[in-house]
Amino acid sequence: MIRERRAVIQSLISALATKPFVMLAGISGSGKTQLARRIAAGLAAGLKENGRFSGKMLGGEVSGPSFRQMLISSDVVPSLEGEDGNEYVDVHELGGVDLSEQSAKDIRWMLRDRVAFLPVRPDWADSRKVWGYYNPLTGLYYPTDAMRVATHAYLEYIKYGDAAPRHFIVLDELNLARVEYYLSDLLSLMECPAKLEGDRIRMGEFASVHPFSRPLWSQSAPQIEMGSETSSHEQIFIGRMDIGFALAYHYLCLASSSSLVPRVSIDFDQVIHGADWARIIPPRVTFTPNLCIIGTVNVDETTFSFAPKVLDRAFVLEFNEANYEAVCSTWPGYDQIKDELAVLYTLLRPSNQHFGYRVVNELLHYLASSQGGWAAQGDFLLTSKVLPKLRGGEDRLGSVLPPLLVYSILGARDVDLLNTKAAEFVMDIAEGGTLKNVLKKLGVETARYPMTADKVYRMTRQLLETGLTSFF
Prior knowledge:
alpha/beta; 2 domains; five-stranded parallel sheet; three-stranded antiparallel sheet; 20 strands
């Protein structure tokens, strides 16, 4: 279970109903990835019918209200109308309540076709990282989970039209590589998607995924002998237009953009030469309105900024606030560190150096496993989990490190007092004053958190001398 602001969830749902590309940006550990995965799974599952997830939308309508009802039906979120007066609501795993083993298995199979989770890597430079690649040595295509989901989205759209179940590609750490490079196909295709017109589909623009004009086997497809034929690929669809997915793939082979094609009744259990729809890769893909992309974004020196064409196509939701009391108050052991968390948040938040809920969770787990309280373990936890993130120049840390040094020496929780005391010795440090001098000025012999005080003192001195500092 994770917990998020009710208004943020409502905004995310409405954004997904409006535009098929949403980015969740914010500090690390704020729950962006888990929120994206759970909302995607809930919307892909659709309404419950006879105890099973149908994939259907309320009234077959793409809208914020219908999406909200789908998430409530799948037990991912409670009512979002706010009757209980709580600003934060719990976001559950799909089907996390009273599921039989068979139901859990059904959910796994359904999500395999409708939700793809791709952790982005820095070496992603072209669309092959999204779709997969053709190996000329084996003659096979090696698809990604995103290719499977995009293809399934296309087939369900050809079958159901605008009532087709939602499909999602979740890109974790979206900007670890240049988005406009590896996502170029999807960024272009989503502007010219397929559309339902009456009982027919007007095809959108296409992007090639391999160099052939015919379908290919994937690496998991059965290998067959076709007698004297030179290529089994060329025989896949001969005389098989009676199979729904084969006809739908035929559109991807030969149809031109903006052409009108009939909708197709597709049985996803049918096979050709032992291969189902997922084991045969069409030569092109198109974007359908039931496909959505959710990306999580961190902004630091390891990530890239976004080109205007990316931002123009996306809704951006920011996750920079951290309300430890609202989200973490029920976690075991929270009460013993909540006052310290409040002080640290107040000191670090103005420079955006604060930490998310993941760090709080790890602090509590460490305290539980060490069987020691904050008094005994706080110094180690500050130096190992809080300080390593601090880096930057005087504009970011000039007002953070001095009061943090006072906090590490006195352990006081009055932020005004920390700032007042810090102002008294900053110039002493700049002029070469030692940590002992600071301790003496504050009227103590030893610091409350000795390791933390020593490290923050050295970081503060480096900042004053060079204008830059970091933990490492």
